[in-house]
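User: Here's a chain of 297 residues. Predict its fold as tokens.
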Amino acid sequence: MSDSDDLIDELRRIGVRYGDAPAEVLPTRPDVIIVRAGSVVVKAHAPGAEEAPLAARMRVVAHPALREIMLEPVAEEVTVVGDRLVTVWPAGTPVDHRDPDEAPWEAAARLLARLHAVPARALPPLPPAGGPARVAGTVARLDGDSAAERVVRQALACLPALDAGPGSTTHGDWHMGQLVRIRGEWILIDVDDLGIGDPAWDLARPAAWFAAGLLEPQVWHRFLSAYRAAGGRAAGDGDPWERLDLPAQAMTVQLTAAAVAAAKREGRPLDEVEQVLIDTCQRIVRFRSACHSVPTQ
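Assistant: Prediction complete.
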């Protein structure tokens, strides 16, 4: 039996302990394992996750100040299984990606605005938000020298230094997969990158998709308008790109790096959307003045 099988068996046992149905493995990204047992899910976090920051984040999402904003865990404790950190959560209904017209953009925007409004001093101590570090980490995992990989590295090199910076309570890795419906209401999930930082990073992914032409303008404007109407300040009051330009460009680099890695892993050429991301990275290289002399091929 492999280490992975042993881990899944232990996740199943934990699920049965807390849940009310037989445990089953759910599809998710390659570095994470999730098992559902009826009303609960058990998550094995990515290899290399650090226990102390995760434990701090678990204390924060169990705090009353985040109730009905971020999902509260079934158990606040972080369990260590082999070399993996494991947590237990209520099971919810995720966004149906087969029906993009029904995606809850306004609900997500309002939740982010509420999260950003929670003062850090009202919560237990939090580490820096993980968004900026995730960008460099995703690029660093590219291990080849293809034209696409070179473009991604050049685009990252063109950007100013990325850091979480001072700011507010921030999700750190928000996208539509970070929402579930519980008792009829949408709520934010995933604590892995929760922390203190610039909340503009939480808007970076839809901003990046919009800037690349991959998100319909009316959807972007619905999202941004709902965020501002709920009191969200991450995009300022005027031109949102004064705050969002750098996070959106950095997110484009991260998304492209992940897409290039996935295509390479699957042994296939880049698809149409992935090629659009490459083209967008090339535009970042061209228009960042410090990189005007850097070739893109």
